Amino acid sequence: MNRKSFVKGANPYMPLWEHVPDGEPRVFTHNGEERVYVYGSHDTERAEYCGRDYVVWSAPVTDLTDWKCHGTCYKAEDDSILYAPDVVKKGDTYYMYAAEQKGSRIMVASSDKPWGPFTNPVLTELGFDPGVLVDDDGRVYAYWGFCKSYCAELNEDMATIIPGTLRENPIPHCRAAWSPEDDAFGWESFFEASSPRKMFGKYVYIFSRRVNEPVPELGVYDDCNGFLSYMWSDWPLGGWQWGGDISFNGGEILTDAEGKGIMTFRWGNNHGSVMEVNGQWYVFYHRQTGLNEYSRQAMLEPVDAVLGKNGKVWIGKVDYLDGEPVASRPVEMTSQGPQVNGINAREWISAGYTCHMHGGQETAWIEPVYEQHEDVSAKVMNITDGLTLGFRYLQFGLNTPKNITVVMNTEAKAAVSVRLDTPGGREIAWLEAEGGEVTVPLKSGVTGKHAVYFVFNLPEGKAEMDRFTFDD
Q: The CATH number of the domain where 419 resides is what?
């Protein structure tokens, strides 16, 4: 085997063996060190959502590829399954809102460190998927709900609601089998995953949106809750105005001959938020692996975030006219994540970093892995004839490599066309394999940053792709 290092800190940005969805990012300075901390649920049950503990990961604000696990920070006293949490700091104390009993009992626990352990849990009056905002004046607001949103101001105890402040349906909700029978439906379509933020002096309510109408430009034609969306206001408990969609976890979006979008990754539930880290805003979200939604992984992308002249907050991929924001759309889903200049093409790149799995005769998926070692790789399973795997983006540098090496398993002879920039782009390599590791020379040079696609020709049988790399 070619002895070289494996890519780390790409997308997903945690190790491929870790499964932390619902990630709420927070930047805290502790003992003089400023780091971004991610608090999420923990997909360890494998046969259902989440797990029975929370772990904390963090990275220095200067390097979002260098993630460290601080270990377990909270477990429910009754060993129940924990759904999505949130953590805020007020004064010198960190408060974790822990969603015990699958989110039906919200506890607030405290710590003097951002990584916990969080102890002395107290029952709150909050509900499913709590998100909390400590305002500039020290007042505290909470947001929660499932197919029906709520918000309120909290007392000094950080657990109970100040009488008269509770608001129901501050955002119109979606139509779903779980939605209440009321008249609060709206195209804004609140589903779950409340996450408040303060940006540019405005209040921003981020949530998972379940669209009930087609979104042809993204290839959505049925009910879909793969979106992270937002509304904004000048007031923390109401007056919300539509902002837009920040993230969609349906992979790279292709465009067909009629101008309609085509998803290239299996969308699934989405949950996360935005955070400014070292002067750059990012959206933190999650994607699906496996054949269900029980092995999700943490993802991030840089986003534009700007305040328009009319007071609107713009977040996502923003379009400008004469320097003024005029439109926005979800940012692209990539393999590179925080490696904004592209993944190093000369390291081992796990097939599990793909952000594009399209075509084929059957459904392909990323194998969930749990073995905790440095060089773990997640395979793409059930590859059939016509499947395309895409990686956005790789960095080749100033000098073109000579060879490409691919590690894969095949049931019969397979041919793979390696293409640049688009699935039908310039072919830079052609390889044939019957299992194991194969190395072939490149047909033409490549330098700089590019997307790379593998197009599979499998007249018979199936294949699994493990990893690949480029060599000088």
A: 2.60.120.260
Structural contact between residues 244 and 331, judged by C-beta atoms closer than 8 angstroms: no
Q: Whole-model pTM?
A: 0.97
101 membership: H or E segment, kind and range: helix 100-103
How many other C-beta atoms are found inside a 10 Å radius of the C-beta of residue 358? 19
Tell which of 269, 300, 329 closes a domain: 329
Nearest to 241 by CA among 205, 197, 195: 205
Q: Find the domain containing 358 and state its range.
A: 348-471
Residue 5: other Cβ atoms inside 10 A: 12
- pLDDT tens digits along 188-203: 999 999 999 999 999 9
What pLDDT does 1 receive?
A: 44
Q: Is the CB of residue 166 less than 8 Å from the CB of residue 154?
A: no
First to last CA, the chain: 16
Nearest CA to 244 out of 206, 195, 286 is that of: 206
- pLDDT tens digits for range 55-65: 999 999 999 99
How many folded domains does the chain comprise?
A: 2
Q: Output the CA torsion sign for 227, 233, 235, 237.
A: negative
Do 350 and 16 touch, CB atoms closer than 8 A? Answer: yes
From CA 225, how far away is CA 208, in angstroms rounded? 7
Residues 196 and 61 in one domain: yes
Residue 281 φ/ψ, nearest 5 degrees: -85, 145
Q: Which two tokens stand for residue 278?
A: 């070292």
* Residue reference for tokens 């879909």: 224
- Beta-bridged to residue 30, according to DSSP, are 33
Q: How far is CA 100 from CA 37, 52, 124, 146, in A?
A: 21, 9, 11, 15
Residue 340 buriedness (CB in 10 A; 0-12 / 13-18 / 19+): middle
pLDDT in tens, 149-170: 999 999 999 999 999 999 999 9
Grouping H, G, I as helix, E, B as strand and the rest as coil, residue 159 is: coil
- What b/e string do you get for 391-430 counting C-beta neighbours within 10 Å, with b at 16 or more? bbbbbbbeeebeebbbbbbbeeebebbbbbeebeeeebbe
In a domain, 6, yes or no: no
Is-contact 454 470, C-beta < 8 A? no
CB 434 within 8 A of CB 377: no
Are 264 and 234 contacting, i.e. CB atoms less than 8 angstroms apart? no
* Domain end point (choices 261, 296, 329): 329
